[in-house]
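agent> fetching stored inputs for the 2-phosphoglycolic acid docking request
agent> found them:
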Amino acid sequence: MSSRKQYIAGNWKMNKLSAEAASLAAEIVKGSKNASCRVMIAPPFTSLGEVSKVVKGSNVILGAQNMSNEKSGAHTGEISIDMLKDLGVGVVILGHSERRIIYGETDQFINSKIKLAMKEKMEVIFCVGETLEEREAGKASEIVSKQVINGLKDIAKTDLSMITIAYEPVWAIGTGKTATDKDADDVHSIIRKTLTKIYSADVAEKMVIQYGGSVKPENAAKLLSMENIDGALVGGASLKAEQFLAIVNCAK
Ligand code: PGA
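agent> prediction call returned; pasting tokens
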């Protein structure tokens, strides 16, 4: 068994008003007191302040779903890394496929955000994943490797302990379709091989790689038992405490 600690993260996306977010967070804090894995929740920006108070002093890490690639200045509508830190955010999700596809974020743009996060000592969950078209064309490995290489360009080996990779096949997100345990594990293994090429085998061995895409209580245990799957980035099922905690309880 690997020495990697499993890591379950909830991405609430554009859901929950402040009061609902605070009560969901409170249930999660309560239910994950004895969790053996790392637990993170990423509410929308507007609820970070409320949720921050709820998770304070608990073992639930506060995450944000995005941030600006600039430190400060004239960027109307953007949220800076210092604003996130000010609210107690410890980790930021970058490169989510919804940001890539709907909002046109490129590998280079995502790389600039990861660089800023490393400079400012903020943990990152860095998302990669192929579309259905790319998978059907037999290009999943190539696409995911390219995203990893471009996203981590010029990131020092010593910074990698602050980065978690989330493999999220686009066709599995919010669709109810999950990659088979074997298909997901295969791509995770390709990501490890890519990390070995860019950095070294020991770096690749230590890197925590989550799977994301319709993870639910019914499929979590099998996915999390795979050799290369070290956790989950959960969307829909993270919006209900009972479901999210059931996934947390599947982690080792
Ligand atoms: P899902 O979302 O669990 O609803 O498929 C996962 C994600 O987008 O992180």
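agent> quick read of the result: The first helix runs from residue 18 to 31.
agent> awaiting further instructions
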